[in-house]
Amino acid sequence: VLDSQYGMYVWPSAVVLAQYVWAHRQSLPGQRVLEIGAGVSLPGVVAAKCGARVVLSDGEELPRCLWSCRSSCRMNRLPHLPVLGLTWGRLSPQLLLLAPVDIILGSDVFFDPKDFEDILTTIYFLLEKNPHAQFWTTYQVRSADWSIEALLCKWKLQSSHVPLCSFGADKEHLASSSLPGRHTIEMMIISPAHSDGT
Question: CATH code at 149?
């Protein structure tokens, strides 16, 4: 734990996503993985330790988060892992020139509803370029009032819920936090919708 601000803290969602990555470690060697909004980069670091070819990214306007990504790489003996500044919703040269990906990781990126469309715009762009890729994402349930279903439909994406018990992440010590309040974590996989609209 480096700092209690956004990308400088290991949030419970990151621990749960890292558990999912670990549960799928045998399929990861050689897979091309991009972590968006990486911050401390726990899921991406675990993927790299499992043999995936990982690129970490966070907002180009967030130098402390990019520093945090690089620091995590150094501390975990992964000093050559690429770290890119990618801002959600922006078609930057870094995004346009990004090598193909198989898996996109994002823990707790669905935090502020004002960012949801920008996130899904970026995910749509990446999945259009990589139609067989999937976006593995975990998020903390903070409000019953928000949903991304309408945005998924708009961007021709589909989601499937992944029960935490299916990969051993339903244990209190994994999805808990010392922060005050309730910490319910959910996981879903987002992929391009089928041509029949499902």
Answer: 3.40.50.150
Q: Is the residue at 1 inside a domain?
A: no
* Strand runs labelled E in the chain: 32-35, 53-58, 83-85, 103-107, 134-140, 157-161, 185-192
Q: Which domain holds residue 181?
A: 25-192
Return the number of other C-beta atoms located less than 10 Å from residue 51's C-beta: 14
Residue 197 maps to a domain: no
Query: Would residue 18 count as lying in a domain?
Result: no
| pLDDT of 39 above 90 | no
Percent of all residues in the chain with a pLDDT value above 70, rounded to a whole number: 84
pLDDT, tens digit, 9 for 90 and up, residues 150-164: 888 888 999 999 998
Q: Residues 6 or more apart from 113 whose CB is under 8 A from it?
A: 146
pTM, two decimal places: 0.88
Separation between Cα atoms, residue 47 and residue 41, nearest integer Å? 10
